[in-house]
Amino acid sequence: MSMEETEDGENNFISKNRLEALVDGVFAFAMTLLVVGLSVPDIPKADAATELPAHIATMFPEFLSFLIAFLILASFWIVHHDHFHYLKTVNKWVLWLNIFILIFVVLVPFSTNLSGDYSHVMIAPLIFHLNMLALGLLFLIQWQYITRTPTLLAMPVPPGRAEASFMERASIILSSVSGIALLFIGVSFSTMYMYMVFPLISRILTWRRRAKRAAPAGL
Question: What is residue 218's DSSP assignment?
Fold first, then answer.
């Protein structure tokens, strides 16, 4: 792979478009692999009418894990698009941050299937939460690095946008930490719901802040 260096030196370590293409491909592959964990029940056709509904009902944890993991990966892909919207180029730090992000992205199908198949064994959902925690931290680090490195930016990041984006990244970290804590407490319900609760709260708080800022202008 050739390195595309220009007069800006280290900042143009690799083409921004090439890195985006790699990230898009890995995200698409990981999101597609998630469905592999949903295996079709092997039931004799003669018994399917009576056994299939009950068997599908027992697969609820797997469906829940699939749905939440797919939506999380989709949200991370949107976050990545948001990061690169403000970039004009990437340097070696952004490149390596993305490589580590992709390592944990391709692990999501494994951790999701493990959590869905063995939701009653603590280590299975724990691995999923740790996977999400690593992704949340890496995206937060990348966002903080981008916003604090003006030489990489194609345009300034509005303060309100920077704050809202920080909250969105932090919500995944809070979700995973809460999920891990609940596992050790020994709750009986699925800790996957944490990934719906905190992002929703974060979104509501962001909307309220925007409404308060816009209110004086509308008077």
Answer: H
Token representation of residue 121: 């064994």
Establish if 4 belongs to a structural domain.
Answer: no
How is 24-73 classified by DSSP, letter by letter?
A: HHHHHHHHHHGGGGSPPP---GGGHHHHHHHHHHHTHHHHHHHHHHHHHH
The amino acid present at 129, given as its one-letter code, is H
pLDDT tens per residue across all 219 residues of the chain: 444 444 444 445 677 888 999 999 999 999 999 888 777 777 777 766 777 777 777 777 778 878 888 988 998 898 899 889 889 889 999 999 999 999 999 999 999 888 877 878 889 889 999 999 999 999 999 999 998 888 888 888 877 677 777 777 788 888 889 888 888 887 655 666 677 776 776 667 666 666 666 665 555
Q: Describe the crossing of helices 159-185 and 123-147 by its angle, rounded to 10 degrees.
A: 160
In a domain, 160, yes or no: yes
Print the domain residue range for 60. 9-218
Between CA 126 and CA 109 the distance in angstroms is 14
35: nearest Cα among 77, 75, 72, 70: 70
157 is written with which tokens? Answer: 């990041």
**Which residues are within 8 A (CB) of 127 and not within 5 positions of it... i.e. 6 or more apart?**
111, 114, 115
What is the number of structural domains in the chain?
Answer: 1
Would residue 2 count as lying in a domain? no
